[in-house]
Structure formats: C-alpha cells, structure tokens
Write a structure and sequence with these properties.
Layout (H helix, E strand, L loop, with lengths): L6 H26 L9 H11 L5 H13 L4 H44 L3 H30 L3 H16 L4 H16 L1
Helix pairs in contact: 1-4, 3-4, 6-7
Length: about 190
C-alpha cells in the first residue's frame, strides 16, 4: 500500500474554511450597513468584492447587477448568492446569502422590540432624516459606478439607457417590461 498524504487535504480544508469565514464576515458587514437596500447597497458590495478582495472584476460585477435585476428577489441577496457561489461553490453561496440577511433580520427584531419607545423620539427622527440623503447619494454612486464600469460602453447602449429612463419616468411602464423591451432591442441592435 502506498502512503496517503493528507497534508494537502488539511491545507485545502483550512483554506476552504477561511474562504467561508471571509464570505460570512464580508457579507455580514455588507448586510449590517445596507441602509436603503437595493441600489444603495451596490457601492458597499463593489468596494468589498471588487476593490478590496478582488473576487470579481468590474465587468463581472456589472454582470452580477444585471443578473440580480432579472432574477426574483432583492439585489443584495442575489449578488451575495452569485459571489458566494463563484468564490466557494454551493456552500459559499449559502453562507454569503445567509450572512447578508442575518444582520438586518436581527436589527429589525431589535427595532420592533423598542419601536414604540422611539417612534416619537426627536433624535431618532433626526437620524432617519440624515440617512435619507446618504441613501440617495449611495444610489447615485451605484449608478455612476455601473456606467463607469462599462454598463454603457458605447453610443448604442447610451441610447438604449436614455430611452429606457425616459419611458420609465414618463410612461410609468412596469420596469420588468422595460427590461424585456431593452433586451429585445439589444438582440436587434447588436446582431
């Protein structure tokens, strides 16, 4: 019988555990500071996943945002699921998804317990008033980052984006319908 070298197995297992721990801590932190949800969370995800940890390129991040918009569910959860899968497979996907949800769920439970005491508190209301403009700034930052990162790489894309924006603002069409129409236009224009 040959000798079995379990040294590599041990190293791989430790490396896997470290990736899982890093996924958990990264997405728990994102979930904890995800005020405003949706697009407001994108700069946080981009900073951690693209800039700091380099788990995704800017192009891959843009693809995650696009896919997250097309699939059911909140963008943060969809993004966490995708990044977790890319970095750590199915287990990484589960860990990232759970960890991005855990802090907000805990915070909501705490807030609900004390809501009646603080709903008329001037300090709490002032904090909320201060957070609103910051959430708008986060959403604007996400939009800028998506455009800068190649979301609108050429004139055709810019035209599709402008027309989609105008339709959304003036015609009040369902955003899903606008996405479908933009996809069809993309097939026609880019073929």
């Amino acid at each position: 019988m040959g000798n079995i070298n379990i040294g590599n197995f041990g190293d791989n297992f430790r490396g896997e555990r470290m990736i899982f721990l890093r996924l958990f801590l990264t997405f728990a932190q994102i979930g904890l500071f995800a005020f405003g949800g949706g697009y407001a969370i994108l700069p946080l995800i981009e900073k951690e996943v693209v800039i700091s940890l380099r788990w995704l390129t800017h192009k891959e991040f843009l693809e995650v945002v696009t896919i997250s918009q097309l699939t059911p569910g909140p963008i943060a959860i969809n993004a966490a699921t995708f990044v977790g899968y890319k970095v750590g497979g199915i287990m990484g996907s589960a860990i990232a998804t759970i960890s991005v949800c855990l802090p907000p769920v805990i915070l909501v439970l705490i807030v609900l317990k004390f809501l009646k005491r603080f709903e008329t508190n001037v300090w709490v209301n002032n904090v909320i008033k201060g957070l609103r403009p910051a959430v708008v700034a986060l959403i604007a930052s996400a939009a800028y980052s998506l455009v800068k990162g190649g979301g609108i790489a050429e004139t055709k894309g810019l035209i599709i984006g402008i027309i989609s924006f105008i339709i959304l603002r003036t015609k009040k069409l369902d955003p899903i319908l606008v996405l479908i129409l933009a996809g069809i236009v993309g097939i026609i224009v880019y073929s």
